[in-house]
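Q: Hi! First time doing this. I have a protein sequence and I read that you can turn it into a structure. Is that right? Here it is:
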Amino acid sequence: MDEHSDNELVRQFKSGDARAFDAIVERFQDRVYRLACVWLYDTQNAADATQEVFVRSYSGLRRFHFRSEPFTWLYRTTRNVCSEFNRVRHGEPLEHEPVDAGDAPEREVSDFERARRVRQLVARLPARQQEVVMLRIFEDLPVSETARLMGCREGTVKALLHKATNNLKRVMATQVTEHD
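A: Yes, that's right. Below is the predicted 3D structure, encoded as structure tokens:
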């Protein structure tokens, strides 16, 4: 089924083909999980949110009208689910999955630590800048798709990304001088 387009998979699912939904999950699960990780900063909550996105999608995709791409619809569902997760745990400290250096090679630990630091820096940005970094840099989406997902113009995406990268450079420069 991998050769089918996203829209074709949704059409097949809407026609009653349960295998098409399995293919949709397989195609998008990693992307949804990565988005949830960025928004929730916790791998367990991200896994739970990913599962919830696809539970909701099972009934929601039956009402999908093809006014956008299926991933655009999943992105918005993911954003809504993650917002709900954040509201539920509002005020709770963020939990990070511990990394046991004995269980992972040193390089994987340093990669995990580097990714954790980047997520922490991005988390300091205003919400719209976080979103544009996530979509343009983490997900490597084109400006046009990012604009469509964010509900804004392409120029706004470019401006937000410019501000976000400047803010990240400033924060990183501050951290470097603090550690010297």
